[in-house]
Amino acid sequence: MKRSEVNEIIRESDKFIRSFGYVMPPFAYWSPEELKARTASDSKAILQARLGWDITDYGQGKFDELGLFLFTTRNGNQEDLKKGGGMLYAEKIMISREKQLSPMHRHIVKAEDIINRGGGTLVLELFNSNPDGSVDEKTDVEVATDGRIVRQKAGGLLKLQPGESVTLLPGNWHAFWGEGGDVLIGEVSTVNDDLTDNIFREPIGRFSSIDEDEAPLHLLVSDYDKWLA
């Protein structure tokens, strides 16, 4: 992706998020220079927890068709998770554009509530896992949705209207997209590790390669190792 495209997606996404009354945390608007200065002094947790902007085309170069906007607002740590106490949770705000696919994947550790916060319909395609972790195309899928248990055939489509949510457990294969408009999505989950805990059905990447055709408006989480080291 070109940096100019990333910058424009940030501007558009911030406007869309604000239209629903959701306000981003102050660090979202720090310049790259301020973020670098602050993470070297009083804001190390941003870097350590990998909080911030996250825009991906999964390395395929067609963001409008295959991509996702995310912003991680809070995240615990793996050490707390291992000992079973402390900050064991994470939260994201995301945007799935109309007909923009977030491809089929599962998590090893993370359980997550996916919440339609507003906009169009959020459509999820769901499968279970086989014992070897592959997609189970035969077994019915059971998931919790706002206090109810929903059972559907493998590969069935679950449609969430604004205000509705679904709980996905480790091993639940899922892909999703917006229908009838762009969708503002909330995610509340176990500690998030996007470096190791995303298993995709197809051999694609989690992060985008950036062509630096202009200066970054704000750094992406995937920029941190290069820009903040």
UniProtKB/TrEMBL annotation:
| InterPro entries on file | D-lyxose_isomer, EcSI_cupin, RmlC-like_jellyroll
Write out the GO MF terms.
Answer: D-lyxose ketol-isomerase activity; metal ion binding
Reactions catalysed, semicolon-separated, are: D-lyxose = D-xylulose
Per its UniProt record, the required cofactor names are: Mn(2+)
Q: Which UniProt keywords apply?
A: Carbohydrate metabolism, Isomerase, Manganese, Metal-binding
Similarity section: Belongs to the D-lyxose ketol-isomerase family.
Any idea what this protein is called? D-lyxose ketol-isomerase
